[in-house]
Fold this sequence. Notes:
Mean pLDDT of chain B: 88
Shape of chain B: elongated
CATH architecture of chain A: Up-down Bundle
CATH superfamily of chain A: Phosphate transport system protein phou homolog 2, domain 2
Structural class of chain B: mainly alpha
Number of strands of chain A: 1
Largest sheet of chain A: none
Number of helices of chain B: 14
Structural class of chain A: mainly alpha
Shape of chain A: elongated
Low-confidence stretches of chain A: none
Low-confidence stretches of chain B: none
Mean pLDDT of chain A: 93
Oligomer: heterodimer
Number of domains of chain A: 1
Number of helices of chain A: 8
Order of helices and strands of chain B: HHHHHHHHHHHHHEH
Distance between the termini of chain A: 39 Å
Strand content of chain B: under 5%
Strand content of chain A: under 5%
Amino acid sequence: MKPNSPIFRMFGRSPIRPLQKHMAKVTECAKVLLAFISATLDNDWAKAEKLQQEIVELEHQADDLKTDLRTHLPKSLFLPFSRGDLLVLLKLQDNIANIAKDIAGLIVGRKMHIPQQIAMGYIDLLKRSIDTVEKTSLAVNELDELLETGFRGAEVSIIENMIQEIHQIEHHTDELQIQVRQKLYAIEKQLEPIDAIFLYKVIQWTGDLADNAEQAGNLLQSFLAS
Amino acid sequence: MIHGHLYIFLACLFGLLMTWGVGANDLANVMSTSIGSKAITIRQAIIIAVIFEFAGAFLGGIQVSDTIRHSIINTDVLNQTPQIFIYGMLSALLAGMSWMTLASLLGLPVSITHTIIGAIVGFGAIALGLDAVHWHQVKIIALSWITSPAIAAALAYILFISVQQTILGKAKPFNYAKRYAPIYLFLIGVAMAVASVIRGLRHLGLALTLLDDIFIIVGLGLVITVIGTFLTRKITIEPNASRHQHFVQTEKIFAVLMLFTAASMVFAHGSNDVAIAVGPIAAVVSVVQAGGSLLVKQQIPYWTILLGSLGVIIGFLSYGRNVIKTVGQNITSLTPSRAFAATLSAAFTVVVATGTGIPVSATQTLVGAVLGVGLARGIGALNMTVIRNIFMSWIITIPAGAIFAVIYYNIFSYIFGK
């Protein structure tokens, strides 16, 4: 007799915990960006490179978690939400780590200096973007409670409120992004043209962190509904 | 009759071996939701299994044993040759034993119900001719194998939604769990009393009036409510506990409810599956005791039920406990609240079916109930490939039981002569 009776094997591994682990890793990865940018502003490139390596390492770990989740998600699994939604959510979460890696990689690769005039504004934007990611992470963390309640009742409104908050923070990052770009525009003539182009790029990507987090939050809404 | 004692001895031997398999495979499956949700410990599971398997077989099983003995094949044609009937029953026991063992080796969750019915129909159709099988009765039984999981699924769906509406969906679920737990406990008592205990007591020769019935139903409900409330009294929560804490404590309350639900599930298993396994043993014994007459309608010899229950318990203790021990840790997606909804619905469906004398499969009904909770979005992940295989193995079981029975029947005829 096989040790695992088939009745036991009919219960699959719920993908919720791995999804939360992945999001936690992604958030950790995005948060390192703040220390990384500070180091570049201090012109401490040794430290910056170390932190960039850390970001790359965290992104790799997130990738491994993603692959693991995907391989343990056969089509035959009957889930209380759409499998497609889950995979898109995973992808959006993963984008966040990828963007963080790209930002750090670009800055280190080009030894980019964020000009003093926009540094404060950029840090604000970055902080707020990371806030969005953290808030989304909190919402994703509610998924196991949502499962516990069977996707109904009080937990639904808790998550809906969180999604509202994510929207508000993300909206704020949009405004901050516009402000930083305006400041950059004001000084762009003093910069090397290529540097200016890539600074715009960095600002855009930083905003993308929040965008992806927000989209992930939106997707949680379809978890409630499906 | 000639070889009478030998027949009884063989029936007991094969029956014991077969029920050993039932205990090792089937009973372990029936306890899977209870233990898998970590609601009850292995020790509690064993105690519950021993007590309620016996109770179920004695109180609720007679009806189904009778169905197995009398209703599937027309035994009138055998009145001149009772030995053929005895060979048939012995073949059914051996078929049950063989298929249970083979299926266990293959890792298939087969049910003794399907095997025995398949075996008896196979024997009837081949040895006595197609006309000797009461196809109408067989149709009813076959239909019940579709309806019983479906009904259990619907009940589990409703029960889970009700748990969600009354407890889990609330802002402070634990407070509501405390409030509604007595009602659910009462429900368990009623479910156990309605179809099984009362009927069982009647069979034991007690004359019960409607008033007695109501008294027993309400009484058992209250007894379980009181015991359950007593057991949950120490489960408390701090006033400003987090939601997570609330869920943890709520599930602890459901774990207590599961003690009773597991008991009713085992009771259902005893009253149905064990009774089915005992059916052929009882048939052989009563024919031999009647001096070879199939016409005398005898009461089921109680010691055969004892024998069957004993075999199941020994099987469970010697092998089934290993099965549940190793898998107890694996199911993370099943919490006591889900296990409660699934198990109670399955148990209720089985005892109602058993009460009307229809042999269903406890395992099959339980799988249906789990699916019902899954449809209510209660379970993190269900492995549909495994479930498909489970369904397939049930379908295979019927012809497998029939083929084994026919082979054994021919061997018996060859050895003992027609």
